[in-house]
Amino acid sequence: MFKNRARAVGVLWGVMASWMAAIPAIAAEPIRIGAVLGVTGAVSYIGDPELKTLEMLVDQINVKGGLLGRPVKLVVYDDGGDAAAARTYTNRLIEGDKVDAIIGSSTSGASLAILPLAERGEMPMISLAGAEVIVVPARKWVFKTPQTDRMAVVRTFDDMKARGVTKIALLTGADGFGKSGHDVAVEIAAASGMTILLDEVFFPKDVDMGAQLAKVRTTAGVEGVLVIGAGVAPAILTKNYRQLGMTLPLYHSHGVASQSFIDMAGDAAEGVRLPAPALLVAGDLSPSDPQREVALGYIRSYQERYGKPPSPFGGYAYDAFNMLVDAVKRANSIDRAKVRDAIEATKGFAGTGGVFTMSAQDHLGLDASAFRIAEVRGGVWRLAAQ
């Protein structure tokens, strides 16, 4: 009887010890990752897959025990693509929510609006927007995952020249993304062997670009058209382009590198080319490509959870979150300065958008080779024949 009682007491103490050991893990203060995204409004096709991706990744990491033995909590605000709202929410994340790092925003204008707050608050920030000026010059606390507009323009100009197109019409959006891309295109055109014969602007809320396209048709010598913009407007422009019977090679920027653009533009998108991250054409990549399995793995996870494939915009969030997690693990700390240093020390990190190698001078870590030229064929994006 005594032996049985002793055994019972031993078992009880074992259970209590296990329970007590589990308390710190259960009660551990969460690691708070803040996100400011354009989930609704004209840029929802960008921000919605980013939000879905972050929610999926947070669930995945918490199922596996969290990060550094602590659960991860995602704190999200929807700026709707509005820079003023992005500033308000970023202040709230830093001052009120006390997050440990920030991912976002979705758009260049909003990212440019919030980066001074990240710098002042000494907060690691990974932008999901394309404009080069977000990280050029390099700012201490700000990084980003999308390839830059300069890389996109360089890659596009190279493909145009390979097809004998050197004299172009340039149509750009009157927003942060469009202006940044415009300035880069104008800056490097001559040195790239390109001549811009027509330079026109469209606005994000335009519902018809017939006036701009009429100028393209009447400008002598134009061999191709480059459109740099995001949102719904580029799809409308593409429809107008086909409605007018225009047949010159039509290029867009990575700002519309998603199935959503094709869905909006319909049959008019057929034949459109643009520079795209590997994710958009993952199935066409070589088996030896280091990005192939990363991209396909993300596609499988996203498809299983949401019933449809992700867009490259979601891929930018996928890369940002995993890069941040990798940095926290290498730093073995959530201390902001240590995490910042670890992000800057990222080397050979294969993501959906490229293989990242950062430095103190380069807070993106990619070059133009991270872009693949994609073409709409049969209503989907495919790797373009060179």
Summary keywords:
about 375 residues, alpha/beta, Rossmann fold, 2 domains, five-stranded parallel beta sheet, four-stranded parallel beta sheet, 12 helices, disordered N terminus
Give an account of the 3D structure.
The longest helix is centred in the N-terminal third of the chain and has 26 residues, at 2-27. By secondary structure, the chain is α/β, with parallel strands linked by helices. The protein has helices at residues 2-27, 44-63, 83-96, 108-120, 149-162, 176-188, 210-218, 233-243, 259-265, 292-306, 312-331, 336-344, and strands at 31-37, 72-78, 101-104, 125-127, 142-144, 167-173, 195-202, 224-228, 250-252, 273-276, 349-350, 355-356, 372-377, 380-383. It has a five-stranded parallel beta sheet with strand order 2-1-3-4-5, sandwiched between helices. A four-stranded parallel beta sheet has the order 7-6-8-9, sandwiched between helices. Strands 10-13-14 form a three-stranded antiparallel beta sheet. It is built from twelve helices and 14 strands. Helix 2 (44-63) runs parallel beside helix 11, helix 5 crosses helix 6 and helix 11 (312-331) crosses helix 12 (336-344). The chain has two domains: 31-147 and 291-366, Response regulator (Rossmann fold, 3-Layer(aba) Sandwich); 150-276, Response regulator (Rossmann fold). Residues 1-26 have low confidence and may be disordered.
